[in-house]
Amino acid sequence: MENTGRRSIFIGAGANLAHPTYGSPRQTLEAAFRELARRGVQILRVSPWYRTAPVPASDQPWYENAVIEVGTDFGPDKLLATLHEVEQAFGRVRTVANAARMIDLDLLDFRGEIAPESPGRATLPHPRLAARAFVLRPLADLAPDWRHPVTGESSQALLAALPFDEGRV
Q1: How far is CA 143 from each of CA 40, 41, 51, 52, 134, rounded to the nearest angstrom?
Q2: Domain assignment of residue 156, yes or no
């Protein structure tokens, strides 16, 4: 089977706090998608939305999560910078890891490229992608033929390999 997902760009979107202007987490993320489009990132497809528990487990509100497929003339570093600009414009303040947030936009995969961690550059694929059911489930819905650029495993196989408490979305 041809891996058409290798030509695609995928972004994970999540939030668990309401925004004072845009409303619910999902409404905020949908407004952020419109802002991305205004900045040169065309939204091609949006996965189904999922309500998911915070990871790691905490007393935070549950998240709204989706994956979007986008098109852009930007390279991965420019796209990542644009995602961070939109997060900042929507009030994201980075404090501690895994804090509750009004918006989170993660570059998951950029046309199957592989780029190791390097300061100020996009790490590709996203380093925690294979361990996150809240990303893999909507990605599998959106692109069932997608395969991890490093391991070659399908999103379904990665999802099935997660521990029970992580793998259920």
Answers
A1: 22, 19, 19, 20, 15
A2: no
